[in-house]
Amino acid sequence: MLALRSAPPVFGVTEAERVARELYGLAVTVSSLSGERDCNFHARTADGQEYVLKIVDGAADPRTTECQVRVLRHIAEQDPTLAVPRLHATMAGADLGSVTRDGLTYSSCLLSYLPGRLLSDCAPDRSLLKNVGVTLARIDRALRGFFHPALAQHIAWDVRRLPELLEFARCITQTDVRRNVESVIRVVQDRLPVLRSLRAQAIHGDCHGGNLLIDAASGTVCGVLDFGDMIHGPLILEPAVAMSELLTEAVTDAAALSTLLEGYALEVTLDSADVAVLFDLVAGRHAVTILLHAWRAEYGGGAAILDKAADTAASSLDWLLGEGREALSREWHHAAGTAVPKPASIDLGRRQRLLGVGAELFYERPLHMVRGDGVWLYDREGRAYLDGYNNVPHVGHCHPTVVRAIQRQTSILATNTRYLHERVLEYAEHLLARCPPHLNACIFVNSGSEANDVAWRIAQLATGHGGALIMANAYHGITDAVAALTPGSGQPDHHDHVVVLPPPPEGLRAGDAVPSDALSAAVESTDRAIRSLAGRGWSPAAFFIDTAMTSSGIYDPPPAWADAVTTRIRAAGALIVADEVQYGLGRSGSHFWGYERRGMLPDMITLGKPMGNGYPMGAVIANRQIIEAFQAKSGFFSTFGGNPVAASAGLAVLEVIERERLTENAAATGAYLRRALEGMAARHDCLGLVRGSGLLLGLEVKGHDRIAAARRAKSIVNALASRSRILIGTDGPAANILKIRPPLPFRPEHADLMAEAIDAAATATRGNE
Ligand code: PMP
To answer: Which fold has domain 117-336?
Structure first.
């Protein structure tokens, strides 16, 4: 166990003046200076010479005291321009004096007084922070050849000793703070072997805002004080301590830490391995601050000076952990000029062995993404790809609001809906507030497939029917029941109880009038489908429609079309299920729900992909009566569905959609991109109709036959991925529709990049049939 002392020596000014006179031959007037352990005085002679007189804590190891004065001589020799206090010998020529009081003997030393303002009292700008980094590095360069046995001292502030403080975690009263600290302790414990492998030397080890003096006029460091916590340790611990202390003293914000590190790396070349542990050391030092404060609070001594630091440390540790090691390390590698360690490449043979050859991959040259941010994905080489394809990261990859909501809740409680929990109710209320009054209850599951599966069961029970109507080439999921509603799923094409409706008329958009012959054709084909079901002995229980008709080829028919179709289907006794897995939560730009754009009033909504921005979620929204009838008949419980973490993710997604006005952005950017695609289609013979609305758009690719068209579409998609680093896909029954479906924060400047790339790829495919 570490010795934690809390009672520094107490000397008065008269005694200090006596010491100055008797040991150093100086007639001075003195005043007290603060000090955590030693007793420090400011001493001034009549002719204006200023000194610091130190009476060293009697409990201090004499070797440590000797080390402190030796190092000052060493630095003065190695880098005379470095602003550290100069040591003045006693009249007898000794570095340390000896003072006796009440039978106890203390050491003293006399140092030059360095003027300046404490960094902790400044609001440092970037250039000062860089200078702090440079100064620390110069200190460390000067210390390279220094050694003293006392550098092996055990001090509680040494982050490497953090695991020894674990027992004090019980003194931390706030549970969430305690949990953060304990998790940091575990990581530091794991990191110890790596820390022992790093370049190590004598370091100052305690460069906080109270040990650095600033010259206000030049905005640079003009003094480095207190070498009492020097240790032999990993070099990287030096900037780590300063970075942590500046945060816990609230001297600067987190973004500025990189500047300090950048300054440090200007003078001392850091290794990638050094920077790789920086996050854990910064977090570790936070944990030390919190632990020592909690310990002192419990055992009653000297906690007050750490009060503020402990509070800021708790919140900034929470912030650090929220940002995460990866994100901050990347920033710090950049600042230090060290290489971000590259994740290992993936052997495709291994993947096939483990996942099967049929485990699909996008693109001819499969991509290995390691990070996402907004509309960007980054591969293992650090190359950025514009994501024009993924709709799961609905509000942008790794959106901090959603990430934090998930992290926070998962660190508090992750149970299931068999326990009471506020968040799932709150989430249901938020979803239902966006629904018509008859859609007033939710069932939470974990995927779009499950949502459709449950909706299908509810529909059968509510109607007493067993038949299903779906759109041509629909996709509704992977369970046995909904794969039957997904013609391209490899299930036998002909399911007795499922009949397919033809797609809406080509080229019509939501605001267009529907020609009367097209309407009557829609009615006729619907009646035919219902008759066909009846002919096989089935009445329809449900009509499932992806409101964007994505896999059917992306359609945007006017409400009159949907009205004609659903009126006939309803009359046959079926429920209408709006599958909002693709078009829900504002993607259409004009409406929150895709069915609203279709002018439909569904009996059920199913949801999936975008709900949790990557956290797996699904939901069925329906009238409470049919949900209760289903619950009564079969009972229903989904282990993960609606769990507190999922509900928190879902709420955060809804919050971001609103706060960032993402539906409006889908409308504006979608319209902008659509115009660009239309202009381009007019210039290229191989491009046809632009389809869809909002941020779910399709661009038809033509060829002399279906196969040629699909091949050309595929080559455009691959060219975009490998040459322009822009991700899109294909869809539609002939796989010849370019599918553009980016995260909703996609902006016009991203649309420009995409349009340019498609233009170039389309030009390149000319004559390539
Ligand atoms: N419905 C639609 C319209 C979909 O696009 C999908 C997924 N592509 C699903 C349902 C199934 O969702 P999940 O993959 O989450 O099971």
So the answer is: Aminoglycoside 3'-phosphotransferase; Chain: A, domain 2 (3.90.1200)
Q: Which atom of ligand 1 is nearest to the CA of 474?
A: 3
Which residues are within 8 A (CB) of 223 and not within 5 positions of it... i.e. 6 or more apart?
A: 83, 84, 85, 114, 115, 116, 212, 213
Helices (H), 478-623: 480-483, 516-535, 559-571, 594-597
Residue nearest to ligand 1 atom 10, measured at CA: 476
Ligand 1 centre from 397 Cα, in Å? 19
Distance CA 639, CA 642 (A): 8
Helices (H), 100-210: 126-143, 175-197
Residue length of the chain: 769
**Parts of the chain belonging to CATH 3.30.200.20:** 13-112
Q: How many other C-beta atoms are found inside a 10 Å radius of the C-beta of residue 92?
A: 8
The whole-angstrom separation of Cα 441 and Cα 423 is: 15
**How far is ligand 1, taken at its centre, from the CA of residue 713, in Å?**
23
Pair 559, 588: CB distance under 8 Å: no
Name the architecture of domain 448-607.
Answer: 3-Layer(aba) Sandwich (3.40)
Ligand 1 closest atom vs CA 609: 15
Q: Considering the domain 349-395+662-764, what is its CATH architecture? A: Alpha-Beta Complex (3.90)
C-alpha 553/C-alpha 536 separation (Å) is 28
- Find the 667 Cα to ligand 1 centroid distance in Å: 23
CA–CA separation, 283 vs 476, rounded Å?
A: 46
Residue 345: partners with Cβ closer than 8 Å, 6 or more residues away = 368, 380
Q: How far is the CA of 476 from the centre of ligand 1 (A)?
A: 5
pTM: 0.73
Nearest CA to ligand 1 atom 1: 476
Contact 311, 42 (CB under 8 A): no
Strand ranges inside 294-401, DSSP E: 369-373, 376-379, 384-387
Give 447 Cα–ligand 1 centroid separation in angstroms: 7
Average pLDDT of adjacent 10-residue blocks, the chain of 769 residues: 49 91 94 80 93 86 88 95 93 91 87 91 91 97 95 90 92 90 92 94 93 92 92 97 89 82 96 96 96 84 62 89 86 93 87 95 94 92 91 97 95 96 98 98 98 98 98 96 87 80 95 96 98 97 98 97 98 98 98 98 98 98 98 96 98 98 98 98 97 98 96 97 96 97 98 97 81
Measured from CB, residues less than 6 Å from any atom of ligand 1 are 447-449, 452, 475-478, 546, 550, 579, 581-582, 608-609
Which residues of the chain form CATH 3.40.640.10?
A: 448-607
Ligand 1 centroid distance, CA of 607 (Å): 9
* Residues 6+ away with beta carbon under 8 Å from 102: none
Helices 748-764 and 706-719: crossing angle in degrees, nearest 10, is: 130
Distance CA 180, CA 161 (A): 17
Closest by Cα among 315, 291, 282 to 163 = 291
Instruction: For 13-112, give the CATH class.
Output: alpha beta
* Alpha helix stretches (DSSP H) within 372-444: 400-410, 422-433
